[in-house]
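Residues determine shape. Next comes a sample protein:
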Amino acid sequence: MLTGVIATILRSIAFVKSVHTVLFIFLSGALVVLLYEVIADKITVLTWIAVALFLAEGVVLIANDWKCPLTSYAERLGSTHGQVTDIFLPKWFADRVFQIYGVLWAIALIFLTIRMLG
């Protein structure tokens, strides 16, 4: 019976969106840490963990046609859209998260390269 309850929870849109939200917040925090460390020239193990996380995220996104697999999963479960950023961000920002984060990631990489070469 317990496994049936767990299976039901794992197939709920609310659960998938909750996990998606936690991952989004975690990765946003990692981006903030990465930007701070490379701009402040305080490269630590957290810098490299953040770089590894974003490289892994890139691989996952590329493998899924630039769409988060949790978004696709929520939509297969019946969500009209699996995007979670629109829950707590203004629509104009939520619609451009990939572009904004991509620019911030590029800036972080530029600073990291400068720090590593300098």
User: Anything to note?
Assistant: The first helix runs from residue 2 to 10. The CA atoms of residues 6 and 84 lie 22 Å apart. The chain has a mean pLDDT of 87. The chain has seven helices and no strands.
